[in-house]
């Protein structure tokens, strides 16, 4: 198949092309390894050198990336992006469009596909109702219609799949394609060597988390567990790394180490420094439907985990309730961290690869191209 991907270039505080990061990079690359030709057209919200770049895959396929800058004036940049999308799909006449990133791209993908009479699959890697674009009055209605009317929809979680079926009235094909892990990067490593590399204490008991460590995502509970009246974790230390918003202040305390923002290649090293990885989350229109990427990364590194009983992971780990803490209950978090520092229990779940998830998407794409779906 020839597939056109419509998406943004920056998400979750990473650059898809520069960082070779995440779902929007990995799934097109995996489709190319399966022999497909992929053209990805992305809009950059940050200034980047405009370019076209191709990446060949062992399976004979390739991914060709186009990037357009939004620019400070925004409207001219967005119009250039719309022009490039239209020009590309008219020239290439793809078999199918896969639109991702947020409400705007879902609307654009569905509209473009109808104009060229090709099928479209809309990807929901989060609940886009949480994003700012969804709150624009006309976007909400158009986005819901795009999700309802797309030939196929991919959802990052079963909870999100049920949400769009029930709340949006979607009756067509809808597949769950979770996030995944590159197990050549996320794997067990020598703990002592990893701690030396990041300058962490060799013999300390370390619990930690990486990613978006902002309070609104639930990271504030980590700080409460290690600093405050309920902090009863003995000599254990908390190590955090990643993005945090302006409303989040990591406490300055002797038992908290803040490594700031790490390079993507340092994240597996960071995880392998830990005795326990904490997968925090908060119940919200975002947290109830997301799939925390760091969970699979920690499991791939064979780490014991402490997990918020929120959303998708609440169902995935229902047979291991001892791994959970309750959102909003600091005492529960402290209790579970203490237990895991002692018992070191791992989550007994299989970690999917990006090739596994691309195979699920490929099945749906082929179905809508062949018109065999219902």
In words, what does this structure look like?
Helix 7 (220-226) links the parallel strand 11 (206-212) and strand 12. The two termini are 20 Å apart. 45% of the residues are buried. It is globular, with a radius of gyration of 21 Å. The protein has twelve helices and 16 strands. The longest helix has 18 residues, at 75-92. The protein has an eight-stranded mixed sheet with strand order 5-6-4-1-7-8-9-10, with helices on both faces. A six-stranded parallel sheet has the order 13-12-11-14-15-16, sandwiched between helices. A two-stranded antiparallel ribbon has the order 2-3. It folds into two domains: 2-180 and 353-370, Glycogen Phosphorylase B (Rossmann fold), CATH 3.40.50; 191-343, Rossmann fold. The chain has 374 residues and is an alpha/beta fold.
Itemize the secondary structure elements and their pairings.
Elements: E1 2-8, E2 10-11, E3 14-15, H1 22-33, E4 37-44, E5 52-56, E6 62-69, H2 75-92, E7 96-99, H3 103-116, E8 120-124, H4 137-149, E9 152-155, H5 158-167, E10 173-176, H6 191-198, E11 206-212, H7 220-226, E12 237-243, E13 256-258, H8 267-271, E14 276-279, H9 293-300, E15 305-308, H10 311-316, E16 324-325, H11 330-343, H12 354-370
Parallel strand pairs: 1-4, 1-7, 4-6, 7-8, 8-9, 9-10, 11-12, 11-14, 12-13, 14-15, 15-16
Antiparallel strand pairs: 2-3, 5-6
Helix pairs in contact: 1-12, 3-4, 7-11
């Amino acid at each position: 198949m020839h597939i056109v991907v419509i998406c943004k270039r920056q998400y979750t505080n990473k650059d898809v092309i520069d960082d070779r990061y995440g779902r929007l990079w990995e799934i097109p690359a995996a489709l190319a390894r399966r022999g497909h030709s992929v053209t990805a057209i992305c809009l950059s919200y940050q200034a980047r050198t405009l370019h076209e770049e191709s990446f060949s895959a062992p399976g004979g396929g390739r991914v060709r990336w186009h990037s357009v800058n939004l620019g400070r004036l925004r409207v001219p940049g967005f119009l250039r992006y719309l022009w490039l999308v239209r020009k590309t799909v008219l020239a290439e006449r793809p078999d199918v469009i896969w639109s991702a990133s947020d409400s705007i791209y879902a609307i654009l993908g569905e509209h473009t596909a109808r104009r060229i009479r090709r099928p479209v699959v809309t990807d929901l890697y989060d609940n886009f109702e949480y994003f700012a674009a969804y709150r624009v009055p006309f976007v909400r209605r158009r986005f819901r219609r795009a999700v309802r009317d797309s030939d196929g929809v991919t959802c990052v979680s079963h909870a999100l799949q049920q949400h769009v079926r029930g709340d949006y009235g979607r009756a067509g094909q809808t597949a769950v394609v979770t996030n995944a892990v590159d197990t050549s990067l996320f794997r067990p490593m020598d703990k002592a060597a990893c701690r030396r590399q990041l300058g962490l204490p060799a013999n300390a008991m370390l619990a930690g988390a990486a990613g978006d460590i902002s309070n609104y995502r639930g990271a504030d509970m980590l700080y409460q567990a290690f600093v405050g009246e309920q902090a009863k974790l003995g000599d254990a230390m908390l190590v955090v790394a990643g993005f945090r918003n302006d409303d989040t202040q990591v406490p300055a305390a002797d038992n908290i180490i803040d490594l700031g923002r790490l390079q993507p290649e340092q994240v597996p090293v960071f995880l392998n420094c830990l005795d326990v990885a904490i997968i925090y989350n908060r119940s919200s229109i975002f947290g109830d439907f997301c799939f925390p990427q760091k969970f699979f990364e920690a499991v791939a590194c064979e780490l014991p985990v402490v997990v918020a009983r929120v959303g998708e992971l609440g169902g995935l780990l229902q047979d291991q309730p001892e791994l959970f803490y309750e959102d909003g209950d600091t005492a529960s978090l402290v209790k579970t961290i203490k237990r895991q520092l002692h018992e070191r229990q791992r989550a007994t779940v299989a970690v999917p690869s990006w090739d596994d998830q691309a195979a699920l998407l490929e099945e749906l794409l082929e179905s809508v191209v062949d018109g065999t779906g219902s």
